[in-house]
C-alpha cells in the first residue's frame, strides 16, 4: 500500500533488511568462462522439468538458442545450437518444457514476439506461436503440467500456451491488466490456477485461471486448427499491488509469498493479502529486503535453486550476490566477483541443489561458479 507520503508500508512491523556483510557460509569459485558470441546473452536456465537433465541448461542471445551440459570439474559441453532463420531476431528469454510424451522442449521468445518451441531431441522447431503484438520478455513453465507455458510481453499482455497442441488458451489483458510492458511472470508452485505478473507499470498482479480451467483441459484434446480454439480473455486480476516505485522486472513465488525485484537495488519478499470484499485490491505486507548494490538497470533477473534455499542475482558490474531465502534476517551467503567479470549480468541460473551458479552477461560470456566444499568437514 502507498501512504500519503508515497512511502510503501506493510501491515505488520518494518521489513527486515539483510546485511551486505557476507557471512561467507558458502564459497564459490570460477570453474569456467565461455565466450558464446559478440551479442548480449539475456537468459540462462537449468532444466528442472526432467530429472534426467538437471545438469543441462540453455542460453539465448541474438537469434541463437544454445543447449549445454554441466559436467564434472567445471566442464561445460555444448549439446546443440538452434539458429533462428530471422537474422534480426533477438531472444530475451528461454524456458524448459516438455511434450505430453516427455520430449524435452526449449521454448524461446524475444524481440519479434514469435515464440519458438524447439524439440531438444532433434533441434527442429516443433511449433511457432504467433499472437503477441510485440516482443516477449519472459517465458515460464508450469512445473505441475510442463506442457503449459506462459509468456509476458511488451504488448501489455500475458498469454497461456499449450506446447503440445500449439493453442493459445488464455490472454491476461484488458480492463484490469497491465498498463505497460509485462517484464516477468511466474506460476504458483502448488496452486495450479494462480500466476503472478509484473512490469513497467510498477505493479505486481495475481491472476486466477480457476473459472477458465475447463479451457485449459480442452486444449489438450483439441483436434481442430489451433486458430479455431475459443481463446478466452482474463480481464481482471484477483490481486493488484504497487510494492515498488519503479519498473518490476522479475517476480517469483516463494510458497504463497512473492519475491519481486525492481531497479532500486533490492529484492523484496512480501505477502499478498487479498481483500475478499473487493477482489483486485490488495494489501502488501513487506517481510524482508535483500539488498543488491549497483543493480539499478532494468532487465536483470534472479534465480533460485529447486528447493528455494538460495537466490542468486547479478548486477551491472558483473558481481553476483547469493542470499539465503529461508532465514530471517536475510543472510548474504556469498558475494562473487572476478577481475574479468565487469559486464552486466542479465540473468543467473542456480543448479538443482545450489552447488553451481551460472551467469550470462551483456558481453556474450557465460560464467560458471562451483561451490567449494571443505574436505575437512
Automatic annotation (TrEMBL):
One Pfam family from the record: WD40
Per-repeat ranges for WD: 129-171, 175-210
InterPro entries: PcG_WD-repeat (IPR051243), WD40/YVTN_repeat-like_dom_sf (IPR015943), WD40_PAC1 (IPR020472), WD40_repeat_CS (IPR019775), WD40_repeat_dom_sf (IPR036322), WD40_rpt (IPR001680)
Keyword hit for ATP-binding: no
Keywords for the protein's UniProt record, in alphabetical order: Chromatin regulator, Repeat, Transcription, Transcription regulation, WD repeat
Membrane-crossing segments per the record: none
Alphabetical list of SMART domains matching this protein: WD40
Family per similarity comment: Belongs to the WD repeat ESC family.
Protein name: Polycomb group protein FERTILIZATION-INDEPENDENT ENDOSPERM isoform X2
Amino acid at each position: 500500500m502507498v501512504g500519503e507520503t508515497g512511502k510503501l508500508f506493510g501491515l505488520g512491523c518494518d521489513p527486515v533488511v539483510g546485511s551486505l556483510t557476507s557471512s561467507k557460509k558458502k564459497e564459490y569459485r570460477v570453474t569456467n568462462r565461455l565466450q558464446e558470441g559478440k551479442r548480449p546473452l539475456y537468459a540462462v536456465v537449468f532444466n528442472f522439468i526432467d530429472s534426467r537433465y538437471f545438469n543441462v541448461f540453455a542460453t539465448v542471445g541474438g537469434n541463437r538458442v544454445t543447449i549445454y551440459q554441466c559436467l564434472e570439474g567445471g566442464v561445460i559441453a555444448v549439446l546443440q545450437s538452434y539458429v533462428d532463420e530471422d537474422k534480426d531476431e533477438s531472444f530475451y528469454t528461454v524456458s524448459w518444457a516438455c511434450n505430453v510424451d516427455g520430449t524435452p522442449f526449449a521454448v524461446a521468445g524475444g524481440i519479434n514476439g514469435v515464440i519458438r518451441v524447439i524439440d531438444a531431441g532433434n533441434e527442429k522447431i516443433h511449433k511457432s506461436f504467433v499472437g503477441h503484438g510485440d516482443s516477449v520478455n519472459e517465458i515460464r513453465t508450469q512445473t505441475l503440467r510442463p506442457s503449459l507455458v506462459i509468456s509476458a510481453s511488451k504488448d501489455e499482455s500475458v498469454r497461456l500456451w499449450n506446447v503440445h497442441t500449439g493453442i493459445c488458451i488464455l490472454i491476461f489483458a484488458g480492463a484490469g491488466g497491465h498498463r505497460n510492458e509485462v517484464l516477468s511472470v511466474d506460476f504458483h508452485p502448488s496452486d495450479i490456477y494462480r500466476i503472478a505478473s509484473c512490469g513497467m507499470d510498477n505493479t505486481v498482479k495475481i491472476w486466477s485461471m480457476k473459472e477458465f480451467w475447463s479451457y485449459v483441459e480442452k486444449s489438450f484434446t483439441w483436434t481442430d486448427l489451433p486458430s479455431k480454439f475459443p481463446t478466452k480473455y482474463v480481464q481482471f486480476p484477483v490481486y493488484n499491488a504497487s510494492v515498488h516505485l519503479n519498473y518490476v522486472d522479475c517476480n517469483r513465488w516463494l510458497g504463497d509469498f512473492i519475491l519481486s525485484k525492481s531497479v532500486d537495488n533490492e529484492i523484496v519478499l512480501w505477502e499478498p493479502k487479498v481483500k475478499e470484499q473487493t477482489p483486485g485490491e490488495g494489501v502488501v505486507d513487506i517481510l524482508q529486503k535483500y539488498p543488491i548494490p549497483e543493480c539499478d538497470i532494468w532487465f536483470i533477473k534472479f534465480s533460485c535453486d529447486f528447493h528455494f534455499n538460495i537466490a542468486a542475482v547479478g548486477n551491472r558490474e558483473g558481481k553476483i550476490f547469493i542470499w539465503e531465502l529461508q532465514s530471517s534476517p536475510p543472510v548474504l551467503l556469498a558475494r562473487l566477483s572476478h577481475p574479468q567479470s565487469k559486464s552486466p549480468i542479465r540473468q543467473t541460473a542456480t543448479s538443482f541443489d545450489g552447488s553451481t551458479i551460472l551467469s550470462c552477461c551483456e558481453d556474450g560470456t557465460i560464467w560458471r561458479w562451483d561451490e567449494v566444499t571443505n574436505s575437512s568437514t
